[in-house]
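Notes from the 1:1 (GR / supervisor)

We went over the backlog. Supervisor wanted to see one worked example end to end before approving the batch request, so GR pasted a single chain during the call. The sequence is below; no edits were made to it. Supervisor asked that the structure be written out right there so they could see what the output format looks like.
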Amino acid sequence: MITLKKEMNRIIRDYKIKDGLVKIKTKVLSPEEAIGNPEHNDYPIQKGRERLMQANFNGAHGVAFTDMFGSYEASLYEIINMELKNNFKRAIFISTINAVLCSLNLIEKTDHCKNEGLVNCQKRIVDFIRKEFSKPKIFQAGLQPRFVEALSKEFEVRITDMDEDNIGKKVNGVIVESPEKAEENIKWCNLIFVTGSTFVNETYKQFIVKDKPTVFYGVTCAGAVYLLNLKRYCPEGL
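Structure output shown during the call:
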């Protein structure tokens, strides 16, 4: 997170954003506000374990999935430089950098897709993987059911998830493993495919491995992957 803080302070200086002129307000989106009414009902946000926090900056939105959520208001300077001691503070920080970078037109797709967008995202993922990586063995960190359904039909896939309720479940024949299996699966795979929520729970560094490609997916990671020059998959984001 230190690198992200440094990069955001640099951008604030370079773009001459005056801290005193702006406030960041975050709010918690309901599942319907976040993803609409998709045809499936097994997404993490629908289970109530996570929510999507939204920051607003000069008319631009930024969001972050988190299991610690609530409303918050502070100056931009305070948010960018606050101590990121838990998932709540990191969700505020991540959603804020997403909103700021979007307002500067440095990134796009910082609002979550809704309704049929979630299935459309699934339909496009196999072609994306084939085009970019041919036929890799994929380690997916973070259960996104639609992705597993699509990818497991075409590739060898392993999955880990932090939600204890998911561990041991089978998704299209693939068993969801515990996070303790991450290192083993990183060694096994040719491609690491990771939920952007890892920037909120601060486990993302584990999945950035020398000489092995990593793709982060979703809206949460929009600003972070831009600042760190990483790859992102989020074709249906708004």
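Supervisor's comment: The radius of gyration is 17 Å.
Batch request approved.
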